[in-house]
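Retro notes - structure team

What went well: the batch runner handled both jobs without manual restarts.
What didn't: labels got mixed up in the shared folder, which is why I'm recording both outputs here explicitly, each with its sequence directly above its tokens.

Job 1
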Amino acid sequence: MESFPRHQCLIYEGAPSRHLPAMAAVAREKLHQNYRCLYLNSPPMVAGMRSYMAAAGVDIAHEVGKGSLVMSSERSHLAEGRFDVERMLLGLEEAIQQALRDGYAGLWATGDMTWELGEGKDFSKLLEYEWRLEKIFGKYPELSGICQYHASTMPREAMRHGLVAHPSIFFNETLSMVNPHYVRLERFSSAEAQNAELDSVIGRLCHPEGVF
């Protein structure tokens, strides 16, 4: 039986860079576990991730050279600048299969959702993407990852969707929790994402120092 959900979300506000040490620590541990690690974000964040991983003792040139570590700002999953759910999921599934063919234990992936949606920022497709992504997590036990939800760059409805669509919430490299607000697809209704109580939950998640 699976001990902990592998599909996690990080919900936060403020400077994205303050979460880089935690992401670097998780990526380093996954590399040690023989996972291929995929980091998707803006060019400044990719540069920051490289710096923090190097400071954590990771030989960046070696890991990138052998294909264990992939850090990219490329958005080839966009179709004419628009977020293409099908293309994104097909690319992820291919990446999992390739990692396994290359002898890795699995794939660990993380990315900033606002960045992944492209300049058009069409948040209307976000919930569909997360539900379908959850099915891929069910199909591939070798997949784990963190979807990053930046409250300062996303509309409230998108933040609610992110909260209810993830089985687990990530805080830092030593603390995650099972998400009590997660709703399975077959039980989801539009009323779930209109629940104003979720806004206060999101607020507390953005300031976890007041919770723990």
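Job 2
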Amino acid sequence: MEKKAHILIVEDEPAIHLGLSDVFVYHGYEVTVAEDGAAGLALGESGAYDLILLDIMLPKMNGFEVCERVREQEPEQPIIMLTARVSDNDIVQGLRLGADDYIAKPFSVEQLVLRVAAVLRRAHVSKPDTPAVLQLGSLEVDVANLCGTCPNQETVHFTRREMDVLVYLAAQSERPVPREEILANVWGYANHDLIETRTVDIHIAKLRKKIEDDAKTPQHILTIRGAGYRLMQLT
């Protein structure tokens, strides 16, 4: 018998975590609930869960801190953040700390179930061979260690999802890559037409701040109007 995927829900509002528990149990998942950030961190650091659904506004410790500290212990842990905050700054903060995606409250249960299934599917897919190093101008990117170095400059650190985007764009560097293709191949969102998310654009913006001399006039990750994004590995 196939083992059920185990989801940790870190959410302090009883109506929400009870409803989510019922939904995911109905869809065949095992569910554990933590009602505050401290309890969520203690469970999340164990590495016992296939995916964490993490609210931002939590008692005792907010979701940003929980995400950051779980990532330190479990770099590959899939995390989706639940947020009533919908400003770019809040979303970027969660993704910067290593969340795989976000979904804003009030959310569609169908959307959430699709995203969870996609993230879990992607997490269990064996990754194809990837280059050890990407050279982006003077920036040498160490793919396995999620970092990049330039002569006489500080080390640049990437999240796992940022690196996945960069590696995928590098593999397709001869052409622009549509957002929908990135969602399908990096996030595993095969039903991308049913997924409402700006996560691709936000990750691209984050990458530009890290790899470009000037993020407002990018030389490496170009936007090709009507076609998508193209990575230029300039020397």
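One thing worth noting from job 2: The chain has two domains: 6-123, 133-231.
We'll revisit the folder naming next retro.
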